[in-house]
């Protein structure tokens, strides 16, 4: 199981102090140093999200990580023309299309591919022409999986947010939905990734989802990094993945 490390919240911390006023200080923490630390801990790829509102990562961060870090880069992006322009400048290995105005971590859903087929199909074609491999960040619904395959995306990232944020029977149901969606995606020839809200304690259950090749994890790793450093936080997650295989 590959581990993609999302380092957005390193930029969140930097922006908390350094967004806005020009300063003579070197803004910290450094996003490229964080990517390097994640790589040293065993990250298989680096994910960052240049949001429309630039609340954490800036385009320059993506360009710097692309230039300096010898790991595959996964750019999360809203499905818009302006973000397509950014992707064409950054030229990541992967682009994960996500919903645009995601404010609430717990209530947000995946991208509604089924109702935006034409527009998303064009984006997939444009990114593919740049040799960027596209994934769709979707809820674990059959309709969304089928639509992702229909618009020509080679990969899906299944949204594990509800799984991560529920307990009891709802949590069990959500795991079943993820398993069914992964099976369907695989049967349609899609590569299957998953992410959002995943913590160390979820790993044994997450490993029951079939055909998964990569997990994308951010917040919990950056949180743990406050106490043990990012390399160690990533190392612990990699070990948990290896032990659950
Ligand atoms: N995958 C996608 C598409 C995301 O948007 C995010 C959060 O930015 C993640 C994975 C990682 O989620 P978390 O930070 O909760 O681990």
What does it look like?
By secondary structure, the chain is an alpha/beta fold. It has one domain: Aldolase class I (TIM Barrel, Alpha-Beta Barrel), CATH 3.20.20.70. 47% of the residues lie in helices and 18% in strands. The protein is built from 11 helices and 8 strands. The protein has helices spanning 8-18, 31-40, 59-68, 81-90, 117-129, 142-150, 161-165, 168-187, 203-206, 219-228, 230-243; strands at 2-6, 45-49, 73-78, 94-98, 133-138, 155-159, 191-195, 212-217. The protein has an 8-stranded parallel beta barrel with strand order 1-2-3-4-5-6-7-8, surrounded by 8 helices. Strand 7 (191-195), helix 9 (203-206) and strand 8 form a beta-alpha-beta unit. Helix 2 (31-40) runs parallel beside helix 11, helix 6 (142-150) runs parallel beside helix 8 and helix 10 (219-228) packs across helix 11. The longest helix has 20 residues, at 168-187. The model has no long low-confidence stretch (mean pLDDT 95). Pyridoxine-5'-phosphate (PXP) binds next to strand 4, strand 8 and helix 10.
């Amino acid at each position: 199981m590959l581990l993609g490390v999302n380092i957005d919240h390193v930029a969140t911390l930097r922006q908390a102090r350094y967004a806005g006023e020009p300063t003579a200080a070197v803004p910290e923490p450094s996003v490229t140093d964080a990517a390097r630390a994640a790589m040293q801990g065993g990250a298989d790829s680096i994910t960052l999200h240049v949001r429309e509102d630039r609340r954490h990562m800036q385009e320059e961060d993506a360009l710097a990580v692309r230039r300096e870090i010898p790991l595959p880069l996964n750019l999360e992006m809203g499905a818009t023309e302006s973000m397509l322009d950014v992707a064409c400048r950054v030229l990541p290995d992967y682009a994960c299309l996500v919903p645009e105005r995601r404010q609430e971590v717990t209530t947000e859903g995946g991208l509604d591919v089924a109702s935006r087929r034409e527009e998303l199909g064009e984006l997939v074609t444009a990114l593919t022409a740049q040799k960027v491999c596209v994934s769709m960040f979707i809820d674990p619904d059959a309709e969304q999986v089928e639509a992702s395959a229909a618009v020509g995306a080679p990969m899906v990232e299944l949204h594990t947010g509800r799984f991560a944020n529920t307990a009891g029977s709802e949590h069990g149901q959500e795991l079943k939905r993820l398993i069914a969606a992964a099976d369907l995606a695989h049967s349609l020839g899609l590569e299957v990734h998953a992410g959002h809200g995943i913590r160390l304690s979820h790993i044994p259950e997450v490993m029951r989802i079939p055909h998964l090749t990569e997990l994308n994890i951010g917040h919990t790793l950056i949180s743990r990094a406050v106490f043990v450093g990012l390399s160690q936080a990533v190392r612990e997650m990699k070990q948990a993945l290896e032990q659950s295989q």
